[in-house]
Amino acid sequence: MVRRDRLRRMREWWVQVGLLAMPLLAAYLHIPPPQLSPALHSWKTSGKFFTYKGLRIFYQDSVGVVGSPEIVVLLHGFPTSSYDWYKIWEGLTLRFHRVIALDFLGFGFSDKPRPHHYSIFEQASIVEALLRHLGLQNRRINLLSHDYGDIVAQELLYRYKQNRSGRLTIKSLCLSNGGIFPETHRPLLLQKLLKDGGVLSPILTRLMNFFVFSRGLTPVFGPYTRPSESELWDMWAGIRNNDGNLVIDSLLQYINQRKKFRRRWVGALASVTIPIHFIYGPMDPINPYPEFLELYRKTLPRSTVSILDDHISHYPQLEDPMGFLNAYMGFINSF
Fold first, then answer.
1. Which of 289, 334, 285 is nearest to 174 (CA)?
2. Per-residue pLDDT, 2
3. Which residues form the AB hydrolase-1 domain (predicted)?
């Protein structure tokens, strides 16, 4: 009798906990995105939007050195946005006439449709469409990319090499800390879970919050160059904008695409004839040293490489902006 009474009270207790937890969980799953910091708000208001197939794409376009014909287009990484370049933006405007960056579809302030088949091919087409929108489709473009942007740059390079009409004319390419080789890429555990889809993906994306995000992203920075809490909030605000956390699993399909199209994209790099450079943060756990660098040098013997300080990791343009900028300017001024 006592045992049955205890079990009854326990069941009642769990029912009460469940009734209390349900509205709290519902509120949590619909929690609004964080407010933009003054710096991030300024970045957004100083940018513009253009429309690609009915979708709004955010971009920045700054006029720099007067009289220079040079144009640089910046391609950001996963899971962040064009704001990744803010620490070197002013420095680039002192060398280039136009400095252009966009938020890829599904990132930052751009639209984040769902369901949607996100692909590297579509992102490359969006870059081409942006340059047509700006009237720069016939100009020679310097590409500077990072992480996910490296893969988009590889597809743009492939199209350029095929001499397809309407494609970018690429003057130079500088990559940085991107998983251009599937065999040396080490995705994070959460990325592995999400990229394979399945029933867990929509649950994990809805449960993702700032704590999970910051705990997952911080380890890819070096021990002395980790972002401040306010910087992490800026990154998270960009992801949460337009419910971007709900499309992360779809965006991560690029990992599977990279394996499928390895021959196309690595082949484009291996046979490159334009000036090419790689800026590398050697503490990167995603593209680890020395395996990645050995394969890169073997595959692209004509490419030059800048290795930053030992403690610089996966986000070199944020962790060591001056070192990154100096390495890039050294490359640009070498041809």
1. 334
2. 56
3. 71-321
